[in-house]
Predict the structure of Citrate synthase.
Amino acid sequence: PHHPGQIFRGLAGVVVDTTTISMVNQETNSLTYRGYPVQELCESCSFEEVAWLLWHGELPTANQLAEFKLVERNRRTLGRNVTSALSRLPEDCHPMDVLRTAISYLGADDPTEGLDDRDHNLAKSIDMFAKLPTIVAFEQRRRRGLEPILPDANLGYAENFLQMCFGEIPPAEQVRAFEVSMILYAEHSFNASTFTARVVTSTLSDIYSAVTAAIGALKGPLHGGANEAVMHLLAEIGDVANVEPWLKQAFVDKRKIMGFGHRVYKNGDSRVPTMTAELRKLTSDGKSADLLATYDALAAAMLRVKDIHPNLDYPTGPVYHLMGFDIPIFTPLFVMSRITGWTAHIMEQLESNSLIRPLSSYVGVEQRKVPTLAG
Ligand code: SDX
């Protein structure tokens, strides 16, 4: 039982509010979106259908899906204002800074600013959902000194994005792996970035401010930034033979092993097996056997030595690497997906809003008198 004034550092174990969007079940290691097991959604649905589900609570009918796809395809193009604003950012800034600035700019440039009813917020959510891939693809190409490729309204979400990045649609198993990653990353209850978005929304601020703040929260390596950190770590280990000595030294140095551990799941992240299966398909030609062997050996050693399981960022790091993305683009890919969960939560928060404002326990110096200026 809790006692008054008891402190829950990091809000660990604290239930802050109700939600109807997703359920993370620690006991069964399972995750459902609006009641549907996420693994089944990966098998049967496109990412567009899952986005609709998160926003509306039900899967779309054929007509609703067709209508949504039409709207999404028509909103992919970036206005000249936003592209010119982004082009003035320092060339070497992190792509997450580009995204954070882009969403902030879209908010400043929105003629419907101040209209925060559900219909307007849904339209703004679809707009960000449609434009984020264009921004990320432009950024991926800019980093390589390549001209941008404009969105193609004849292609679905995944194919269009991958074409904008790489100039062609990759093989089917890569498109599939990408789509599965988008569905798995889409939503995960009151994680740090989603909670951030809900805190901002609870002051009755606007949806762009909430998403901008959420991007900032996701950037950190304890949260979304981990998928980039995983790839740096696998590169640092280099070879499967180096896993055991590397890990031994990492423990001596008290390093956090990126892509491992989770605040909620203590017996394994429910999404990891689905994503790891996609990684195995991408490496089935044997060309990246070393990477897969290192991946498996590190996971096995972490379990054996520390009893700590991998989280979703562990398989997505190498999957995105094998697809040809630059490492700093990995967390922006997470943003492209989580925009759906964030915006669903922002709209849910507004439905029955209560200002989020916890208490703190003061442990600083006791009350004292302000001295007069000495000397
Ligand atoms: C995501 O919440 C979500 O839903 C997030 C997410 C989503 O979908 O939104 O799932 C996405 O952010 C996944 C997490 C990505 N982060 C990382 O991979 C970074 C590495 N992981 C850890 O830093 C850590 O496990 C956290 C931050 C994920 C969770 O931290 P907690 O719950 O605060 O737990 P802790 O840090 O207090 O760890 C408990 C113990 C400690 O040992 P003791 O002090 O008790 O001896 O486990 C150890 C930790 O040192 N530990 C690790 C470890 N994770 C936990 N030790 C080494 N490497 C690790 N990765």
Remarks:
- The CA atoms of residues 186 and 337 lie 5 Å apart.
- The chain has a mean pLDDT of 96.
- The longest strand covers residues 22-25.
- The chain has two domains: 18-219+324-351, 226-323.
